[in-house]
Design goal:
By secondary structure, the protein is of the alpha/beta class. 42% of the residues lie in helices and 9% in strands. It is built from 12 helices and 8 strands. The strands form 2 sheets. It has a 5-stranded parallel β-sheet, with helices on one face. A 3-stranded parallel β-sheet has the order 4-5-6. Helix 6 packs parallel to helix 7, helix 7 crosses helix 8 and helix 10 crosses helix 12. It is globular. 47% of the residues are buried.
Length: 335
């Protein structure tokens, strides 16, 4: 529940905004589970890779090796060689590939040849802001980003609260966010790419797991889904028990990482993230919960640790995958 400053008795809308996120989580965990029947025919529950005991797929968000400043084609080679099944590139990397004369058809073939699936992508369209003009521009940016991903065979894309995340940004009404996300879903549906509501822990808006769930539920769209992140759930102050209320098929991608015991929660930033199992996050409980709730999407390793950027990229990739797979095996009791 998100604490809201009030000067008198709660209005009906305030009550929904403070308690509705919790109710929304329950809805994703119960009422919307019926969408699993439709989801069975979508890429989020099917994989071209050989199934493993967990049913999870392993993906690499390219931020993890951003500091090595490698071209996208080289990243693809290394990610595939390390044993990942998917990749989560940043839109700017794809655009840089194009600016260098590369064709998306060639990039798609390269991905397919390496058995790498584009699980998601990271772009920053301002879909959540109150400014009508900026939001309209953000929709156009989203269209371009989604089209790039569609041409690479991808089906999902992150939808973070960019533009409404800064400390000086106004608080955005959750019902307004839900309506805007619903429109984003409609646009994405025409292209064939589904935006996932992504929480950002330090953000002024959509910093908590329950808020993302609320927006997804109140969008009123059957393909609404969320993109959680271990670090961001912690950084925003949400508890991990909330994951127990969310149907696994409504999480196509889950960003995995870990966080240290110090500095304190509100002092940590992206660069503090560490490999899974090297911090104090309850990763056993997280992976066990995901498995119990029917999650069979992609665990995407997303780190921004500058000390890792100073290492050989292949070493970072190999170590990262080994640690994620080891944590999953431990959580689920696999040898």
């Amino acid at each position: 529940m998100v604490e809201q400053p009030v000067s008198g008795p709660l209005t009906r809308r305030q009550l929904f905004q403070t308690g509705g996120a919790t109710l929304g989580a329950a809805a994703l965990g119960s009422g919307l589970w019926m969408n699993e029947l439709a989801a069975a025919d979508t890429p989020q529950t099917a994989s071209s890779a050989t199934p493993n005991k967990s049913g999870f797929r392993y993906c690499l968000n390219t931020s993890t090796i951003r500091g090595q400043k490698l071209p996208l084609v080289e990243e693809i080679e290394l990610i595939a060689k390390a044993g990942y099944q998917g990749i989560e590139p940043w839109i700017r990397e794809i655009e840089e590939f194009q600016k260098g004369g590369g064709k998306l058809s060639e990039l798609r073939k390269r991905l397919e040849d390496h058995n790498l699936r584009v699980e998601s992508a990271i772009g920053f369209p301002q879909w959540s802001v109150n400014d009508d003009a900026k939001r309209a521009e953000g929709i156009e940016t989203f269209k371009r980003d989604a089209d790039l991903i569609a041409q690479l065979g991808g089906k999902f894309i992150a939808a973070p609260p960019i533009g409404s995340h800064g400390g000086d940004a106004p608080m955005v009404d959750l019902f307004a966010l839900a309506e805007r996300y619903g429109k984003l879903l409609e646009v994405g549906r025409e292209i064939g790419v589904t935006p996932m509501v992504e929480i950002w822990g330090p953000s002024k808006n959509l910093s908590r797991l329950g808020e993302a769930v609320f927006v997804a539920v109140e969008s009123g769209q059957p393909d609404a889904c969320i993109l959680p992140d271990i670090y961001h759930i912690f950084r925003g102050g949400s508890g991990f028990d909330g994951l127990r209320l969310i149907e696994g098929t409504k999480i196509p991608v889950f960003h995995v990482n870990d966080y240290p015991a110090t500095p304190g929660r509100t002092e940590q930033n992206d660069s503090d993230r560490v490999h899974v199992g090297d911090g104090v996050a309850p990763v056993d409980m997280i992976f066990e919960t995901l498995h119990h709730n029917g999650f069979q999407g992609a665990l995407s390793l997303e780190l921004f640790n500058r000390s890792y950027w100073e290492k050989d990229a292949a070493t970072v990739l190999s170590e990262g995958l080994k640690k994620v797979q080891g944590a999953v095996a431990k959580a689920l009791g696999h040898s």
